[in-house]
Amino acid sequence: MALADAVGTGRVTARAVAEESLVRTGKAQEAFGAFLSMNAALTLGEAEEVDRRVNAGEQLPLAGVPFAVKDNINVAGRPSTAGSKILAGFVAPDHATCVARLVQAGAVVVGKTNCDEFGMGSSNENSAYGPVKNPWDPARVPGGSSGGSAAAVAARAVPLAVGTDTGGSVRQPAAFCGLVGWKPTYGRVSRYGLIAFASSFDQAGALTRSVDEAARAFAVMAGADPRDSTALATPVPDVLAAPGRGARGVRIGLLAEASSAEGGLHEDVKASFEKAAAAFRAAGALVTTVSVPRVTLAVPVYYLTATAEASSNLARFDGVRYGARRGEASLAGLYRETRSAGFGPEVKRRILLGTFALSAGYHDAYYGRAQRVRALLSRDFAAAFRGVDAILCPTSPEPAFELGAKTDDPLAMYLADVFTVPPSLAGLPAVSVPSGFSRDWLPIGMQLIGPGDSEPLLFALARVLEDASGALARRAPGAVS
User: Fold this and answer.
1) 319 and 273 share a domain?
2) What is the mean pLDDT of the chain?
3) Exactly one of 70, 112, 183, 406 is catalytic; which is it?
4) Residues 279 and 313 in one domain
């Protein structure tokens, strides 16, 4: 990042950068509801520590880069509410591993961003603290559940924001807000310090304005972690040189099932998909069509398995172990009042769905069957990757929709994840990259999916598409100054 280079060489101080970012953060919060908490004293103190380290001769890859953190990721000394009333007043005791690594690399936290409650949503309208608006059009959603992080970067409050991606919660907001958003191979980035939604899916990712910035963030965040038993201990693939490699000779498969997605592709998304395929052909890639047959089952499988895990994970928020306590007439009353007042409608819906799927008499019929289909979907991807190196499909079937357009129809909202859920089920890495605009000048994103640990290839291909789309030349109308 040019900003890190400027701070690292002493042309500007990290404190000066932080002061400017705090001003922009305040404007982004006022205009779009992107942030839930800020602490100027902590931010400036971190920036001054970066200046001290730079002056001492340390080489920091993200020196002075201000970044925002989704509010379901712990940052020491700052609130972590996960967008929920039940965690009101909770202050994190330590950094999540991904945050600690960014801070160690010289980045500076400027605030915690708004999100769908416990990461459950595709529009950032499920936060207990109000919705987030899209800087490209404030009448539209920024995507979810990392919508606050996406809005913060799109509004130019920060160049980097961290989010969590369970079924597409980094990639889909990236598409709606004209950003690069990546989800790593499952286990490549530690889950320590993330407030769990669905443990076999949850991953930390990042949103940036360019592929180069995304690669640098991945290089810092990825790696083994003894505090997370699911973190991979194998060497992290080198992504820093990847974006310049091009696409010549790479076998790219266009997802056949994309054209038959339930509800259909928006006309402008379909046109952008075709242009992206043409751009790869022009870059020397070998573009064919590839089928992943069980992709069509991904949404129901995801919403059975993920809600089952959510039912288990969120059982801890009972007013005894975790959660703001309400009512103490009896133990049952304490549970009932705490959870009824603390959880919002979408979280309650998913807990009920998951509890039903795990209940006696229904476990094998629903959860067990979904897990078997999940395994078969992974095999479908493995078979597809024997014929292609990467798969291309839209990130979302439509551009950003209007606020309130899907809130009364949960199924329509869930279908917004139709393309992002499949790689999450299979634990595969995926990157969303801007690929153009709709006729209303709303961003459209394309998703690249690869086999495990193929991030270097995905960033290289994303750079090709980024260059072809010219998306970097445009900025959101709501960008702050």
Assistant:
1) no
2) 96
3) 70
4) no
